Target: Ribosomal RNA small subunit methyltransferase C
Amino acid sequence: MSHYTAPSQIAERQLAYFAGKKVLIAGEMEDLFPLQLAQHCQSVSVFTTHYGYYRQLQHSSTIQSYFGAELTEDVEADLLVLYWPKAKLEAQYLLAMLLAKLPSPCEVIVIGENRSGVKTIEKMFTPYGSIKKYDSARRCSFYWGQCHHSPNSFDLEDWFKSYLVQYQQHTLTIRSLPGVFSHGEFDLGSQLLLDTLPSLQGKVLDFGCGAGVIGSVMAILNPHIELEMCDISALAICSSQATLAANGLCGRVFASDIYSDTATNYDYIVSNPPFHSGLETSYQVTETLLQSAPDYLARSGQLFLVANSFLKYPPIIEQAFGNCETLNKTNKFSIYHANKS
Model:
């Protein structure tokens, strides 16, 4: 049984094809297949917007890895392998950005699960050249094509979506890149969380900051806090930084794989945590966030969390903190609070 994800297994069937190529891999990767691929290619580089994935690869001696919202380094490659991301707009973004960096013509392979909408690549790729399905297995498809018309340039600014959010008497401009949670709307869970928060002081962490809605509102309502915002996604980091700037707000925004890069002395940790990893539902990140939260809070620090009401988070919070209260509830969301005693 292969320890690779289904998209990598279908790529593994084509190993001979990669011989001698200079490969750049990007998209929704979740395994260490690039390390195996490096044994069959001239070179392998990986570009990822996912900080956790970057941390797994960053010390590898066989492949070069890059993390960010945009690939700014010069990478020598003649074959782009795109693992289809969960958002179609993110696939468009990655293609436009990466093909602008690569020579023309260059070969392109796109792999993804059929349920993820990967078959839309045939139409999406038309401006660049032609692409066709080459193989399918494990409910995945493997497309191969050639880019003959590289985009002349790529401007990150063109990919931001801006929208206004009203909160109390404030109007905020939210700026968001493709694939970022809250892309184009103020979700009800975040709103309920903000409605429930007390006035804040000291050092505040917005965990899983997305496009920066929660952090920005907290900064407007509590201008004296020391605001920090973290996320695992470079696209989210970039969006939150742009949102703060658009509203004249200050805060430190950084990438963190759960608590890998955070401080340990927060007065408040506030979160609307993600529970999707790729196409799958995953609670592991939030469970770790809750279990370890006391270690990252100051002596009388507090945790505030919004979650879908069906998720069984109170026992985890209770075990970590010795207390947990439900401060607010709708038929869909619950707001949980705990004190570090």
